Amino acid sequence: MPSSVPPRLRCEVLSRSFYDRDPRLVARGLLGKILVRDIGANKRLAGRIVETEAYLGAGDAAAHSAAGRTPRNAVLFGPPGHAYVYFIYGNHYCLNASCLGEGNAGCVLIRALEPLVGLAHMAANRGLVLPFRPPPGFLRLLTSGPGRLSEALAITRERDNGKDLAAPNSDLYLASDGIPPQAIAATRRIGITKAAEEPLRFVIVGNPFVSHRAR
Q1: In whole angstroms, what is the distance from residue 170 CA to residue 183 CA?
Q2: Dmax of the chain from CA atoms?
Q3: Distance CA 141, CA 144 (A)
Q4: How many whole angstroms separate alpha carbon 161 and alpha carbon 95?
Q5: Contact between residue 60 and residue 196 where contact means Cβ atoms under 8 Å apart
Q6: 12-204 homologous superfamily
Q7: How far is residue 189's CA from residue 146's CA, in Å, rounded to a whole number?
Q8: Burial class (CB in 10 A: 0-12, 13-18, 19+), 125
Q9: What is the pLDDT tens value at each position of the chain, 215 positions in all?
């Protein structure tokens, strides 16, 4: 089971100002924070963020905003602290948090979570059955990778694009439980061809839920 499961998840929603800064700082700062999906009747799905990627806006050839504002990427241009969800490879969604002030595009892709709360529900969303004693590596199938975590938390573009991640009454938000991450490493981003050498992927070193081993 995950190493840091709290008996009762108590966390504080991240403020708008947390996102109103350089995406590189936000990407580092999100490591160790909690992604929460409330599903009604006091039920919750949540995981600790262990891997992120920063995208820097107009000057970043790999960013969705590099060619300017469009109806598809409008969320990236502000205000900060909103969900930008896109569909990729024809089979999964990716969740990003918008950064910087109004009119300045930037975001952080959430790449992997350590599942904390609602594991059986996450497994069902992924088409899996959670064993009573999960074998080694099973829990990685829930939230290790941006597509997996989006499916586990039922995140879609239709449902969540533009959602306010800093609103206490949102059913999808980012929060802190006060537990700091251990060592952090920066590596090249994954799965892109433009600006691929930039060290803009951030991981919690040694965490088994990171989607790819840090080099």
Answers
A1: 31
A2: 49
A3: 6
A4: 9
A5: no
A6: Methylpurine-DNA glycosylase (MPG) (3.10.300.10)
A7: 13
A8: buried
A9: 444 444 456 889 999 999 999 999 999 999 999 999 999 877 899 999 999 999 998 788 889 988 889 999 999 998 999 999 999 887 899 999 999 998 899 999 999 999 999 999 999 999 999 999 999 899 999 999 999 999 999 999 999 999 999 998 999 999 999 999 989 999 999 988 888 888 999 999 999 999 976 55
Do residues 103 and 124 lie in contact, with contact meaning Cβ atoms separated by under 8 Å?
A: no
H/E element holding 54? strand 43-55
* Helices and strands of the chain, counted as H and E runs: 6, 9
Q: Where are the alpha helices (DSSP H) in the chain?
A: 16-19, 23-30, 119-125, 140-143, 146-152, 157-160
Looking at the DSSP assignment, which residues form a beta bridge with residue 98? 107
**Which residue has tokens 């009573």?**
132
Are 177 and 35 in contact by the 8 Å Cβ rule? The answer is no
* Residue 43 structure tokens: 């039920």
Of 94, 14, 29, 108, give the one whose Cα is nearest residue 63: 108
| Residue the block writes with tokens 């952090």 | 184
Which pLDDT score, from 0 to 100, does residue 3 have? Answer: 40
Tokens linked to 30? 């999100």
